[in-house]
Design brief:
By secondary structure, the chain is an alpha/beta fold. Helices cover 35% and strands 23% of the residues.
């Protein structure tokens, strides 16, 4: 691939718009094709900077010059438009692959840390970013966590800036599917559990192999941090292997049960109230001192800490960071458990993609609170998740027509409310012990609230008043 090869981008979401902007910043032409019937904010942004685009369907006659096709994560590999592109001999890749190619072709060699897993990606990515910033490093924290890597890279190019000292990328299986040369300096696989199987022919092996692509291009100079208690991760290691240096971690077993080498992590063999991370030398920390508690967050903290060890951060800096990390407010934020119902604030999910990831993470029946200002949303990508995971839909907005049309037939019941207080009360009325009430609106907040922060705070206040 040459820097100036013209590209076709399928989908005008964050990753698609980011790729088009990146192409423009390096002097390559881009054409964006979106199947949505309405012009959303992504299309408006493209038009504002003069990038050609189409909406309402994909028209192959518009793509004649494109050599590279970049597919948005929500578009399945077996979609007709993807098959058409491949049959025409065009290479189809993901935004992560495109951004990483441009990153390398521009001569950048600064470390890239990539985090994947079925659960815990955003938290761990945020922890690593917090740790590096605490130690004074300039970072770009990108990917599924919010801003696409392509967009951030284009911004730096346009400002004639050097890359960040470290780029931390949260990556999903769908993004990894479209990679063939993506090579993070540090790869992190938190876990591999059944998810998205409808996109993988209902075969867990295919989904697990997709996750494993994070290490497919790594070499012996790179590191792979992985969960030594995850059976699917271990199976992929055995079947597919890796050239990377292995750093196994366990939040359940003693270090001496996990590894006999000087690289890895586990519970202190003498005191299970502590964990130890070994990378040439030893780092230990009392579990109770971690800022975020719970077994899953223990592993997330260990993974983030090990990434810090690989990057040669001060031990005390790692310890201080893991003690001071506050989580990501309004992003899958645990609020409270009330009579067995878990309330989660994901108010920052102002688009379909963000809500998709919130629902993806749910491992209990969901009472889903959604709605607000619809920004030309196409809800079709949420249908499988709603069908499988959502019990009740609570629509919190002034106009909920599209939400009802998309999901009423998929849930046990749908309900309209006009405030966060009403939404929380209804969720509490409908919920059962063991279920989750999730605020993940997929819409902007401006019909009922001044910002997504105000919406999230109102939700949390209402929960705490139950």
């Amino acid at each position: 691939m040459n820097l100036t090869d013209p590209i076709l981008v399928l989908g005008a979401g964050e990753s698609g718009v980011g790729c088009a902007l990146l192409a423009q910043s390096i002097g390559a032409s881009a054409f964006v094709s979106d199947a949505g019937a309405e012009k959303g904010p992504g299309v408006a942004e493209l038009q504002a900077v003069g990038i050609s685009n189409e909406v309402g369907g994909h028209q192959p006659k518009s793509w004649s010059d494109a050599k590279i096709v970049i597919k948005s994560p929500g578009i399945p590999d077996d979609a007709e438009v993807v098959q058409t592109c491949r049959n025409q001999g065009r290479e189809v890749i993901s935004e992560i692959e495109y951004a990483s190619r441009i990153f390398r072709k521009l001569g950048h060699t600064n470390p890239v840390v990539a985090v994947t897993g079925s659960n815990g990606k955003t938290t761990t990515t945020s922890m690593i970013d917090h740790m590096l910033r605490h130690e004074g490093w300039a970072t770009d924290c990108v990917g599924n966590i919010g801003t696409s890597w392509a967009r951030r890279l284009s911004e730096r190019i346009n400002r004639d800036e050097e890359p960040a000292e470290v780029t931390i990328v949260e990556v999903s299986s769908f993004q990894l599917d479209g990679t063939n040369s993506f090579r993070p300096s540090v790869g992190v696989i938190l876990n591999i559990t059944p998810d998205h199987l409808d996109r993988y022919n209902y075969k867990m092996e295919q989904y697990a192999a997709s996750k494993w692509r994070i290490t497919a291009s790594q070499t012996e100079t790179d590191c792979l941090i992985y969960n030594a208690d995850c059976q699917w991760t271990l199976r992929m290691l055995d079947q597919l292997g890796t050239s990377a240096k292995l750093l196994p971690l366990s939040a359940e077993r003693s270090l001496d049960e996990v590894t006999r080498s000087s690289h890895g992590g586990g519970l202190d063999p003498q005191d299970h109230s502590k964990f130890i991370l070994q990378h040439f030398n030893s780092f230990s920390m009392t579990i109770q001192k971690l800022a975020v508690q719970g077994k899953h967050n223990l592993f997330n903290s260990m993974a983030a800490g090990m990434a810090g060890r690989v990057l040669d951060l001060r031990k005390e800096g790692i310890r201080e960071s893991l003690q001071s990390f506050e989580g990501v407010e309004h992003r899958l934020e645990f609020v409270q458990e009330v009579n067995g119902i878990t309330f989660i604030n994901d108010s920052k999910a102002t688009n379909v993609n963000s809500a998709w990831y919130a629902l993806e993470c749910a491992n209990a029946p969901v009472i889903w609170i959604a709605g607000g200002i619809d920004k030309g949303n196409d809800y079709s990508t949420l249908i499988p998740l709603v069908r499988d995971k959502v019990k009740h839909l609570i629509c919190m907005g002034k106009n909920n027509t599209k939400l009802h049309a998309a999901f009423d037939e998929l849930v046990e019941g749908s309900h309209d409310v006009n405030s966060a207080e009403e939404a929380v009360a209804k969720a509490y009325e409908l919920g059962l012990p063991g279920e989750t009430a999730l605020l993940s609106p997929a819409c902007a907040s401006f019909d009922l609230f001044g910002s997504y922060e105000q919406r999230g705070r109102a939700f949390k206040t209402a929960v705490r008043q139950l």
